[in-house]
Here is the input.
Amino acid sequence: RCALEMQSLMEQLGAIEIQATKWRLTLKIGIAAGHVLYTTVGDPTKRCVAVVGGSALLRSAEAENQARSGDVIIDYTSLDCEQFKRETLDQRFAKVLGLEQSVRAQPIRWPEPITPHPPAQFDAYLHPTIAQQVREGRTAFINERRSVTLLFVNFNAPDYDRDPFAAERLNHYFREVLRIVERYDGYLNKVEIGDKGSSFLVL
Here is the structure.
């Protein structure tokens, strides 16, 4: 229901005019189900990053790759498909046409607003400049443009589904990464796990 409502909303937005041209925002959505590993890696005194990995994540990415603009594609080998009206594409994927019965939406629990003095452990999840602004009570952020050097790194990830020490291995690896990045005054921006492999970005 969430994916279908998102697609419906995108259709309502219509075309966007930019100078002499028009273009339309579109979505391609892929859905799968299964277990994932969700953990935090890094050094709490320096930098922490949330990481999500697992075969369910990869299957949803593969489903999205099968989609065209406006589609919701499911990996029906991992889902209970009795609740979907669908058009089968192949032995794994199907296009969702609607729902067999209505699904009750769950109420959204909005996060609490940022307090003037958030706990210090939050700092590790923020860029040092932003963390300082939050500590000083300046929570209305101002966009900045800076010249930076980007470093994309692919790494061999552990087996998120079968390795019971996957989180520990990741944490050890990224502690070493942080030590090297800090030596060159860099910043670990994010870690990405997807169908194109595992990578991280350093600024």
